[in-house]
Design brief:
The protein contains five helices and five strands. 40% of the residues lie in helices and 20% in strands. Helix 1 runs parallel beside helix 5.
């Protein structure tokens, strides 16, 4: 989670919502990302989505021509609870574990508003651990939005 927090700080420095993500497979970080929605002018450029793409490309290149890039046996560490888009992508990618810091009571889809990764109606479920380094992740988000509100006044 410390590496995900470093990514969130990079996002903060760039004026992005400070969310960072890393994906680990076989005890090795195979993807690192932070939010880039403002930079890329792309509302889907969340840290999780970028990390999933990086990790899938890595695993497909390592797994040979028959590997589909699925994230089986991989864990994602993200500083904030994923939204519906990111939670759905984690299910579709068959990621095994989700570890996150701060809950998102307004848009969280991994226990707060919805629980997409644990929904029995879907074809895959993730193990979820929440609250890891929560205070650091939450304070970074609070500072970002406090500064944003000041700028808009």
């Amino acid at each position: 989670m410390r590496e995900a927090l470093k990514q969130a700080k990079l996002a903060f420095e760039k004026g992005e919502v400070p969310v960072g993500a890393v994906i680990v497979h076989k005890a090795k970080i195979i993807a690192r990302a932070h939010n880039q929605a403002e930079l890329l002018h792309d509302p889907t450029a969340h840290a999780e989505m970028i990390a999933i793409t990086q990790a899938s490309e890595y695993l497909a290149s390592e797994g040979g021509p028959n590997h589909r890039g699925s994230l089986e046996k991989a864990s994602i560490y993200v500083t904030m609870e994923p939204c519906t888009m990111c939670a759905g992508a984690l299910v579709l990618s068959k990621c095994e574990n989700l570890i996150y810091g701060a809950q998102d009571p307004k848009a969280g889809a991994c226990g707060s508003l919805y629980n997409i990764p644990r929904d029995d109606r879907l074809n895959h479920r993730l193990s979820i651990v929440k609250g890891v380094c929560e205070s650091e992740a939450k304070s970074l988000l609070e500072e970002f939005f406090r500064n944003l509100r000041k700028e808009r006044r």
